[in-house]
Amino acid sequence: MILRCKDQLIDLKIPKIAGILNLTTDSFYDGGKYNSSSRALKQAEQMLNEGADFIDVGASSSKPGAAVSGADEEKTRLFPILEALLKAFPEAYFSVDTYHSCVAEGSLQRGVALINDISGGQMDQKMFETVAKYKAPYVLTHLQGIPTAMQQNPTYTNVVEEVLLYFSKKIKAAQHAGIDDVIVDPGFGFGKTLAHNYSLLQHLDLFHTLGCPIMVGVSRKSMIYKLLDTTPQEALNGSTVLHTVALQKGAQLLRVHDVKMAKECVLLLQALQ
Questions:
Q1: Catalytic (active-site) positions
Q2: What is the DSSP string of the chain?
Protein backbone atom coordinates (compact mmCIF):
# COMPACT_ATOMS: atom_id res chain seq x y z
CA MET A 1 0.00 0.00 0.00
CA ILE A 2 1.31 3.43 -1.02
CA LEU A 3 0.77 6.77 0.70
CA ARG A 4 1.20 9.98 -1.33
CA CYS A 5 2.76 12.61 0.89
CA LYS A 6 4.21 15.99 -0.20
CA ASP A 7 4.74 14.74 -3.77
CA GLN A 8 6.53 11.65 -2.48
CA LEU A 9 5.36 8.03 -2.45
CA ILE A 10 5.71 6.24 0.88
CA ASP A 11 5.59 2.46 0.79
CA LEU A 12 3.65 1.13 3.79
CA LYS A 13 4.73 -2.46 3.21
CA ILE A 14 7.09 -1.83 6.11
CA PRO A 15 4.99 -0.23 8.90
CA LYS A 16 5.75 3.37 9.76
CA ILE A 17 6.07 5.15 13.12
CA ALA A 18 4.45 8.47 13.99
CA GLY A 19 6.06 10.05 17.04
CA ILE A 20 3.70 12.06 19.27
CA LEU A 21 4.70 15.64 20.04
CA ASN A 22 2.20 17.20 22.44
CA LEU A 23 2.39 20.98 22.86
CA THR A 24 -0.30 21.15 25.54
CA THR A 25 0.05 21.42 29.30
CA ASP A 26 -2.69 18.88 30.02
CA SER A 27 -2.01 15.81 27.86
CA PHE A 28 -2.59 12.63 29.84
CA TYR A 29 1.06 11.46 29.72
CA ASP A 30 3.52 14.21 28.85
CA GLY A 31 1.59 17.44 29.27
CA GLY A 32 3.84 20.49 29.58
CA LYS A 33 7.07 18.75 28.60
CA TYR A 34 7.32 20.09 25.06
CA ASN A 35 5.29 23.32 24.98
CA SER A 36 8.22 25.57 24.08
CA SER A 37 10.14 25.74 20.80
CA SER A 38 13.43 24.64 22.32
CA ARG A 39 11.98 21.58 24.05
CA ALA A 40 9.81 20.65 21.05
CA LEU A 41 12.80 20.89 18.69
CA LYS A 42 14.90 18.70 20.96
CA GLN A 43 12.17 16.06 21.26
CA ALA A 44 11.48 16.06 17.51
CA GLU A 45 15.18 15.60 16.79
CA GLN A 46 15.36 12.69 19.22
CA MET A 47 12.32 10.97 17.71
CA LEU A 48 13.64 11.42 14.17
CA ASN A 49 17.02 10.01 15.21
CA GLU A 50 15.23 7.03 16.78
CA GLY A 51 13.50 6.26 13.50
CA ALA A 52 10.21 8.19 13.45
CA ASP A 53 8.78 8.42 9.93
CA PHE A 54 6.33 11.15 10.95
CA ILE A 55 6.08 13.62 13.82
CA ASP A 56 2.46 14.16 14.88
CA VAL A 57 2.12 17.59 16.50
CA GLY A 58 -0.88 18.38 18.68
CA ALA A 59 -1.80 21.63 20.40
CA SER A 60 -5.13 20.57 21.90
CA SER A 61 -5.58 17.80 24.46
CA SER A 62 -7.92 14.97 23.47
CA LYS A 63 -7.75 13.07 26.74
CA PRO A 64 -11.11 12.01 28.24
CA GLY A 65 -12.78 14.99 29.85
CA ALA A 66 -10.69 17.56 28.00
CA ALA A 67 -12.50 20.74 27.00
CA VAL A 68 -12.91 21.45 23.31
CA SER A 69 -10.28 24.04 22.49
CA GLY A 70 -10.93 27.16 20.46
CA ALA A 71 -9.25 27.48 17.08
CA ASP A 72 -7.54 30.79 17.92
CA GLU A 73 -6.09 29.35 21.12
CA GLU A 74 -4.83 26.34 19.22
CA LYS A 75 -3.23 28.49 16.50
CA THR A 76 -1.43 30.61 19.08
CA ARG A 77 0.02 27.54 20.74
CA LEU A 78 0.77 25.60 17.56
CA PHE A 79 1.96 27.83 14.74
CA PRO A 80 5.13 29.40 16.23
CA ILE A 81 6.48 26.01 17.29
CA LEU A 82 5.34 24.34 14.07
CA GLU A 83 7.18 26.95 12.00
CA ALA A 84 10.34 26.32 14.02
CA LEU A 85 10.02 22.56 13.50
CA LEU A 86 9.48 22.85 9.75
CA LYS A 87 12.47 25.17 9.43
CA ALA A 88 14.75 22.95 11.50
CA PHE A 89 13.72 19.68 9.82
CA PRO A 90 12.68 20.55 6.24
CA GLU A 91 12.94 16.95 5.00
CA ALA A 92 10.81 15.47 7.80
CA TYR A 93 7.12 14.62 7.50
CA PHE A 94 4.99 16.45 10.06
CA SER A 95 1.31 15.86 10.74
CA VAL A 96 -0.96 18.08 12.80
CA ASP A 97 -3.54 16.66 15.19
CA THR A 98 -6.55 19.02 15.02
CA TYR A 99 -10.32 19.05 14.57
CA HIS A 100 -10.44 22.68 13.37
CA SER A 101 -10.35 23.17 9.59
CA CYS A 102 -8.76 26.61 9.89
CA VAL A 103 -5.93 25.14 11.99
CA ALA A 104 -5.54 22.37 9.42
CA GLU A 105 -5.40 24.92 6.60
CA GLY A 106 -2.84 27.10 8.35
CA SER A 107 -0.72 24.01 9.03
CA LEU A 108 -0.91 22.78 5.45
CA GLN A 109 -0.03 26.24 4.16
CA ARG A 110 3.08 26.14 6.33
CA GLY A 111 4.14 22.79 4.88
CA VAL A 112 2.86 19.92 7.03
CA ALA A 113 2.39 16.63 5.24
CA LEU A 114 -0.91 15.34 6.61
CA ILE A 115 -3.80 16.05 8.97
CA ASN A 116 -4.85 13.82 11.87
CA ASP A 117 -8.44 14.58 12.94
CA ILE A 118 -9.74 12.69 15.98
CA SER A 119 -13.30 13.71 15.15
CA GLY A 120 -13.39 12.32 11.62
CA GLY A 121 -14.75 15.63 10.37
CA GLN A 122 -17.65 15.61 12.83
CA MET A 123 -16.52 18.69 14.76
CA ASP A 124 -15.92 20.89 11.71
CA GLN A 125 -17.90 20.35 8.52
CA LYS A 126 -15.26 22.16 6.43
CA MET A 127 -12.46 19.74 7.34
CA PHE A 128 -12.81 17.38 4.37
CA GLU A 129 -12.86 20.13 1.73
CA THR A 130 -9.93 21.88 3.40
CA VAL A 131 -7.72 18.78 3.39
CA ALA A 132 -8.81 17.92 -0.16
CA LYS A 133 -7.78 21.37 -1.40
CA TYR A 134 -4.17 20.65 -0.39
CA LYS A 135 -4.20 17.03 -1.62
CA ALA A 136 -2.92 15.91 1.78
CA PRO A 137 -3.43 12.50 3.40
CA TYR A 138 -6.05 12.48 6.16
CA VAL A 139 -6.21 10.33 9.29
CA LEU A 140 -9.90 9.54 9.79
CA THR A 141 -10.52 8.57 13.41
CA HIS A 142 -13.59 7.06 15.02
CA LEU A 143 -14.85 9.08 17.98
CA GLN A 144 -18.13 8.60 19.82
CA GLY A 145 -19.17 11.97 21.26
CA ILE A 146 -16.62 14.70 22.03
CA PRO A 147 -13.55 14.51 24.31
CA THR A 148 -15.36 16.30 27.15
CA ALA A 149 -17.96 13.54 27.51
CA MET A 150 -16.81 10.63 25.33
CA GLN A 151 -15.99 8.30 28.23
CA GLN A 152 -19.07 8.94 30.36
CA ASN A 153 -21.15 6.10 28.97
CA PRO A 154 -19.89 4.73 25.63
CA THR A 155 -22.49 2.28 24.28
CA TYR A 156 -22.53 -0.01 21.26
CA THR A 157 -24.56 -3.03 20.22
CA ASN A 158 -21.54 -4.42 18.36
CA VAL A 159 -18.54 -2.09 18.48
CA VAL A 160 -16.61 -3.71 15.61
CA GLU A 161 -19.57 -3.71 13.21
CA GLU A 162 -20.56 -0.15 14.13
CA VAL A 163 -17.06 1.27 13.75
CA LEU A 164 -16.64 -0.51 10.41
CA LEU A 165 -19.97 0.93 9.21
CA TYR A 166 -18.91 4.39 10.36
CA PHE A 167 -15.69 4.12 8.36
CA SER A 168 -17.38 2.82 5.22
CA LYS A 169 -19.62 5.91 5.18
CA LYS A 170 -16.94 8.41 6.20
CA ILE A 171 -14.37 7.12 3.71
CA LYS A 172 -16.87 7.60 0.88
CA ALA A 173 -17.64 11.14 2.11
CA ALA A 174 -13.94 12.01 2.35
CA GLN A 175 -13.21 10.62 -1.10
CA HIS A 176 -16.23 12.41 -2.55
CA ALA A 177 -14.83 15.64 -1.11
CA GLY A 178 -11.58 14.97 -2.98
CA ILE A 179 -9.32 13.35 -0.37
CA ASP A 180 -7.27 10.70 -2.17
CA ASP A 181 -5.35 9.22 0.76
CA VAL A 182 -7.45 8.23 3.78
CA ILE A 183 -5.89 6.49 6.78
CA VAL A 184 -8.30 4.93 9.29
CA ASP A 185 -7.74 4.98 13.06
CA PRO A 186 -10.23 2.96 15.17
CA GLY A 187 -9.92 5.56 17.92
CA PHE A 188 -8.83 3.45 20.87
CA GLY A 189 -10.03 5.21 24.04
CA PHE A 190 -12.20 7.68 22.14
CA GLY A 191 -15.66 6.80 23.41
CA LYS A 192 -14.90 3.17 24.22
CA THR A 193 -14.78 1.00 27.32
CA LEU A 194 -11.86 -1.36 27.97
CA ALA A 195 -13.91 -4.20 26.48
CA HIS A 196 -14.66 -2.14 23.36
CA ASN A 197 -10.98 -1.31 22.91
CA TYR A 198 -9.83 -4.90 23.16
CA SER A 199 -12.59 -6.12 20.87
CA LEU A 200 -11.46 -3.63 18.22
CA LEU A 201 -7.84 -4.72 18.58
CA GLN A 202 -8.78 -8.39 18.48
CA HIS A 203 -10.62 -7.85 15.18
CA LEU A 204 -8.27 -5.26 13.71
CA ASP A 205 -7.60 -7.45 10.68
CA LEU A 206 -11.24 -6.94 9.58
CA PHE A 207 -10.47 -3.26 8.98
CA HIS A 208 -8.36 -4.19 5.95
CA THR A 209 -11.65 -4.70 4.09
CA LEU A 210 -11.95 -0.90 4.02
CA GLY A 211 -9.01 -0.69 1.60
CA CYS A 212 -7.20 2.03 3.57
CA PRO A 213 -4.02 2.03 5.67
CA ILE A 214 -4.66 1.45 9.38
CA MET A 215 -3.16 3.62 12.10
CA VAL A 216 -3.17 2.38 15.70
CA GLY A 217 -2.81 4.71 18.66
CA VAL A 218 -2.70 2.78 21.94
CA SER A 219 0.52 4.20 23.36
CA ARG A 220 0.37 4.47 27.18
CA LYS A 221 -3.44 4.72 27.08
CA SER A 222 -5.89 3.76 29.80
CA MET A 223 -6.77 0.49 28.05
CA ILE A 224 -3.31 -0.56 29.26
CA TYR A 225 -2.78 1.09 32.61
CA LYS A 226 -6.35 0.73 33.92
CA LEU A 227 -6.38 -2.96 33.08
CA LEU A 228 -3.02 -3.42 34.83
CA ASP A 229 -3.91 -1.02 37.67
CA THR A 230 -0.85 1.16 37.07
CA THR A 231 -0.24 4.60 35.49
CA PRO A 232 0.62 6.01 32.05
CA GLN A 233 4.23 6.34 33.24
CA GLU A 234 4.32 2.57 33.85
CA ALA A 235 2.60 1.59 30.59
CA LEU A 236 5.58 1.28 28.23
CA ASN A 237 5.78 -2.50 28.41
CA GLY A 238 2.04 -2.83 27.85
CA SER A 239 2.27 -0.42 24.91
CA THR A 240 4.98 -2.56 23.33
CA VAL A 241 2.88 -5.71 23.72
CA LEU A 242 -0.15 -4.12 22.06
CA HIS A 243 1.98 -2.55 19.32
CA THR A 244 3.26 -6.04 18.52
CA VAL A 245 -0.30 -7.40 18.34
CA ALA A 246 -1.39 -4.51 16.10
CA LEU A 247 1.53 -5.08 13.73
CA GLN A 248 0.78 -8.80 13.57
CA LYS A 249 -2.78 -7.90 12.57
CA GLY A 250 -1.50 -5.70 9.77
CA ALA A 251 -1.40 -2.15 11.14
CA GLN A 252 0.63 0.03 8.79
CA LEU A 253 1.19 2.97 11.15
CA LEU A 254 1.76 3.21 14.89
CA ARG A 255 1.25 6.54 16.71
CA VAL A 256 3.55 6.36 19.73
CA HIS A 257 5.23 8.25 22.55
CA ASP A 258 8.28 5.94 22.60
CA VAL A 259 9.69 5.78 19.09
CA LYS A 260 12.76 3.62 19.72
CA MET A 261 10.76 0.80 21.29
CA ALA A 262 8.07 0.87 18.61
CA LYS A 263 10.70 0.86 15.87
CA GLU A 264 12.26 -2.21 17.45
CA CYS A 265 8.85 -3.96 17.28
CA VAL A 266 8.70 -3.27 13.55
CA LEU A 267 12.26 -4.44 12.91
CA LEU A 268 11.91 -7.64 14.93
CA LEU A 269 8.65 -8.62 13.29
CA GLN A 270 10.10 -7.85 9.86
CA ALA A 271 12.97 -10.20 10.65
CA LEU A 272 10.51 -12.96 11.57
CA GLN A 273 8.67 -12.53 8.28
A1: 221, 255
A2: -EEEETTEEEETTS-EEEEEEE--S--TTTTTSS-SHHHHHHHHHHHHHTT-SEEEEESS--STTPPPPPHHHHHHHHHHHHHHHHHH-TTSEEEEE-S-HHHHHHHHHHT-SEEEETTTTSS-TTHHHHHHHTT--EEEE--SS-TTTTTSS---SSHHHHHHHHHHHHHHHHHHHT---EEEE--TTSS--HHHHHHHHHTGGGGGGG-S-BEE--TT-HHHHTTTT--GGG-HHHHHHHHHHHHHTT-SEEEES-HHHHHHHHHHHHHH-
